[in-house]
Amino acid sequence: MNEEQFKAHEALVKELNDPALRAEYARAYDNYKPGIVARLLGYLLVGSGTLVYGKKPSYSKFKAIEVIARIPYQSWEVATYTLLTGLYSNEKRAIELTKTSTFSREAQDNETLHVVVLAQICKRLKCDGFFRHFLIPILFAFFYFWTIYILYMLSRRSALELNYIFENHAYHQYQQFLVEDGERLRDTPVYSEFLTFYGRNPRNEYELFELIRNDELVHRNRSIRELQAKKG
Ligand SMILES: [Fe+2]
Ligand SMILES: [Fe+2]
Predict the structure, then answer these.
(1) Given pLDDT bands bounded at 50, 70 and 90, which one contains residue 231?
(2) Half-sphere exposure (CA, 13 Å, Cβ side) for 19?
(3) 86-134 pLDDT, tens per residue?
(4) Do the Cβ atoms of 69 and 166 come closer than 8 Å?
(5) pLDDT > 90: what percent of the chain?
(6) How far, in whole angstroms, is CA 13 from its chain's centroid?
(7) Of 147, 117, 122, whose CA–CA distance to 132 is shortest?
(8) Digit-coded pLDDT (tens) for 162-203
(9) Would you say 65 and 117 are in contact if contact means Cβ atoms under 8 Å apart?
(10) What spacing in Å lies between the alpha carbon of 209 and ligand 2's midpoint?
(11) Which of 19, 84, 97, 177 is least surrounded by CB atoms within 10 angstroms?
(12) How many CB atoms lie within 10 A of CB 136?
C-alpha cells in the first residue's frame, strides 16, 4: 500500500480505540444482512474453525484465523486481474475492479502483519502444533483460495459478503479476548521485529490486539462499502 493509504489506515485504527467512536463506526454495518450463499459458506467456515480450534479465543486459534484471513484478499486480486483482462473496454467496470484490487492489496499487507506477529507469539509459547496449526491452515488456505476465486467470478457480492462474515467473527473474537484476558495482556510485552518494520509500536499485547481488532472491523466494513460503492 502507498504511504498515504498506510497513514490514513493507521490514523483510523488508533481512533477506533475510543469505544464511542468504534461503536459508531461499527453501527453502520452491524446489522448488514448478507445473502444466502455467503451466510451458508460463512456458517461452514466459522463452524469448522470452531470445531477444530474451539469456541474460545486463543493465540493458536488466532494464528489459524490469520493464515486464512489473508486468502480472500489475494484471491480477489487475482480474480480482478483475470476479469480486467476481458474488460479493458468497460471503463466503469475497470474502475470498480481496480478499487477492490487496491483494498485487497492494503488488507493483504495488514493481514500479513497479523499472521507474522501471531506466529512469533505462538512460537514463543509453543502453542503451534504441526497438524492443527500448520498443516490444516495451509491445506485449507489452498482450497479456500480457489473457492473464493471461483465465487468472486460467479458472484462478487457473495465473495465480499462472505468476507464480511469472516471479519466480523474475527473482530468479535479479538474483542472477547481483550475483555477476558485484558489484565494479563496489559502485563505482556510484545517482541516482533516485523511490527517495527511495519511501523507499529504497541507497548504490550493489549495494545497490539486492540489494533488488530480495529483492523478487522475496518476490513469488515470496507468489504460492504466496496459493494455499495458499486451500487452507488
Ligand atoms: Fe487479521
Ligand atoms: Fe481482517
Answers:
(1) low
(2) 3
(3) 777 788 888 877 877 888 888 999 999 999 999 999 988 888 777 877 8
(4) yes
(5) 70
(6) 13
(7) 122
(8) 999 999 999 999 999 999 999 999 999 998 999 999 999 999
(9) no
(10) 12
(11) 19
(12) 17
The residue whose grid cell reads 509500536 is 201
CA angle 36, 147, 150 (to 5 degrees): 85
> Ligand 1 centroid vs 145 CA: distance in angstroms?
16
> Tell me, what DSSP letter sits at residue 203?
S
Dist. CA 211–CA 174, nearest whole Å:
10
Cα 213 to ligand 1 centroid, rounded to whole Å: 8
Let me know how long the chain is.
Answer: 232
Where do the domains of the chain lie, and which CATH numbers do they carry?
A: 57-231 (1.20.1260.140)
Q: Say which ligand is closest to the CA of 211.
A: 1
Q: Of 162, 178, 183, which is closest to residue 212 (Cα–Cα)?
A: 178
